[in-house]
Design goal:
Length: 188
């Protein structure tokens, strides 16, 4: 049966990929740094805006805002480039990923917030940390102002209005810095 076509339209997309079988996607911090460098180069090249990103051991998630239909080209560059570097570094051959990347466009403020919470909570659900902001390889700590890494992330468009901690209903906080948004406790 053929695969369903992807929705590659501009807008906010929740994307991800993972390792094949029982393999790991990131063996260590150097692998994660390599992936992040490629990710930043990809978002710069295609003028994407990263809203959130989280790297676990077997997979990764990102929420990106696309200005055009460049998702496929960007993911080819990112996933293919990382797979080659991973295989070279670890002396292996063959497929690293279990399948092609997946993507889901988020068309409502509530859908964006749900995806944001999912990405932020992923390390907690995996049993890696107690609180989302404690995972070193997630942008959530930067978003709530407790970490200085992930400077390329801009979560200003996450719809705080759908969150019970929002200062006013329906607020999108467009143009505000991540540190100005009321995120503490929102993803716990």
């Amino acid at each position: 049966m053929p695969r369903a076509p992807r929705d590659l339209a501009p807008g906010i997309q929740h994307v991800g990929n993972g390792a094949a079988g029982a393999a790991v996607y990131f063996q260590d911090d150097l692998d994660r740094l390599t992936w992040l460098r490629l990710f930043v180069a990809t978002i710069d090249r295609f003028a994407w805006r990263c809203i959130a990103v989280c790297l676990l051991t077997t997979h990764w998630h990102a929420i990106i805002d696309l200005p055009d239909n460049s998702l496929s080209a960007g993911m080819h560059r990112l996933v293919g480039g990382y797979s080659r570097r991973f295989n070279d570094r670890h002396g292996r051959a063959g497929y690293l990923v279990r399948d092609r990347y997946w993507s889901r466009r988020k068309e409502t403020p509530e859908a964006v917030l749900e995806a944001f919470r999912y990405v932020a909570r992923n390390p907690v659900g995996a049993g890696l940390v107690q609180r989302p902001e404690d995972w070193l390889w997630s942008s959530y700590g930067k978003t709530i102002g407790v970490a200085g890494s992930f400077e390329f992330v801009n979560a200003a468009d996450v719809p705080c209005g759908a969150c019970p901690l929002a200062p006013r209903p329906g607020a999108w906080h467009r143009g505000r810095s991540s540190a100005d948004t009321p995120w503490r406790g929102c993803c716990r």
